[in-house]
């Protein structure tokens, strides 16, 4: 008998993939969680019925959410990661040679536990001595910070449940305060094909607080539409006007210096919608 996992991506579309084994199912205090073995995507982490990451394509998302902001800042010494419980973003952040200290604030310690147990490719960076891992609400953490971080990376679930507040104008003001005077942040901001109104709202909210706001894109096949957006808010460095002069020589699989700039070149429908052009 064949077993299939089906994710309802919107009212009209579903993504299905064959499952060979259900490795873990749990109801945490914050969300429902499953880890599935799939022949198409490898192991997949599912939260509240939504694919968070898969071993097959995670490197694209994690390299892009980490190295684009890290290499936009000329000296990313102190970094904050909000969310990112699977560990993929932390793995990328700690291997950047300029990063001296990273704090990761994840609200749900059960996600980290499941990743440690079932997704060693992703959780491998969580024990790095550069990383200070804390289990608390990212919003509360940011509220208490002032002039502290060079780069903040918001690797959250979709804007539902505990992540809703991570996508608000009030939160971006707190992020601005938590950043140093030349700091910048990047956040995952959903599908440009399905969530353009949402991206435009984030663009306006970030633009109301930061002098520079930019979207960039990457292809992530396991996410709705296969094309994913990230939004960067920056106090000083514009990734488009000043792309990195050099990029650390790391064994990337997706990211490189050309992709860094190319990712900010938006398709016409996005430029039109966002009023750029
Ligand atoms: N790459 C994924 C995506 O785009 O769907 C996100 C992966 S990561 C598993 C997302 C994490 O954000 C989850 O583990 C969730 O518990 C965490 N999270 C959600 N809201 C949070 C909050 N307010 N503070 C800290 N972590 C939060």
What does this structure look like?
It contains 9 helices and 13 strands. The chain has 277 residues and is of the alpha/beta class. The chain has 2 domains: 3-54, Spermidine synthase, tetramerisation domain (Spermidine Synthase, Chain: A, domain 2), CATH 2.30.140.10; 58-273, Rossmann fold (3-Layer(aba) Sandwich). The strands form 3 sheets. The protein has a 7-stranded mixed β-sheet, with helices on both faces. Strands 3-4-5-6 form a 4-stranded antiparallel β-sheet, covered by helices on one side. Helix 1 crosses helix 2. The radius of gyration is 18 Å and the shape is globular. The model has no long low-confidence stretch (mean pLDDT 96). It binds S-adenosylmethionine.
Task: Please specify the SSE layout and strand pairing.
Elements: E1 3-10, E2 13-19, E3 21-27, E4 32-38, E5 42-47, E6 50-54, H1 58-72, E7 78-83, H2 88-94, E8 101-106, H3 109-118, H4 120-123, E9 131-135, H5 138-143, E10 149-155, H6 169-178, E11 179-188, H7 196-207, E12 212-219, E13 227-234, H8 257-262, H9 268-273
Helix pairs in contact: 1-2
The protein binds S-adenosylmethionine.
